[in-house]
Amino acid sequence: MDAEAARTARESLELAFHISNILETGLDRHTLSVLISLCDMGVNPEALAALVKELRREPSSFPVPSSVP
């Protein structure tokens, strides 16, 4: 990726993140970046939105690591 393309990608992500914050989605930059990349690869955006909603609704089934003394 050349410098101009990288700059455009960063600006696009910043704009998407700003919109995400206005809409109070609770998505961080990294998560938003992953979701955008998945859409770019052809994943259905409505399916991704449904998945994010479902994951937020369910309590985490992964063990939470305890702090190491």
Secondary structure: elements and pairs:
Layout: H1 3-22, H2 29-40, H3 45-57
Task: Indicate the structural class.
Answer: mainly alpha
Total helices: the number is 3
The helix content, as a percent range, equals 55-70%
Mean pLDDT: 88
Outline the low-pLDDT stretches. Answer: none
Biggest sheet overview:
none
Distance between the termini: 44 Å
Q: Sum up the overall morphology in one term.
A: extended
Rounded to the nearest angstrom, the radius of gyration is: 15 Å
Strand content: under 5%
User: Number of DSSP strands?
Assistant: 0
What is the string of helix and strand elements? Answer: HHH
How would you sum up this structure in a few lines?
This protein has 69 residues and is mainly alpha-helical. It is built from three helices and no strands.
Could you explain how this protein is built, in words?
- This protein starts with a helix and ends in a 12-residue tail after the last helix.
- The chain is an all-alpha fold.
- The protein has helices spanning about 5-20, 30-40, 45-55.
- Helix content is about 65%, strand content about 0%.
Which terms summarize this structure?
69 residues; mainly alpha
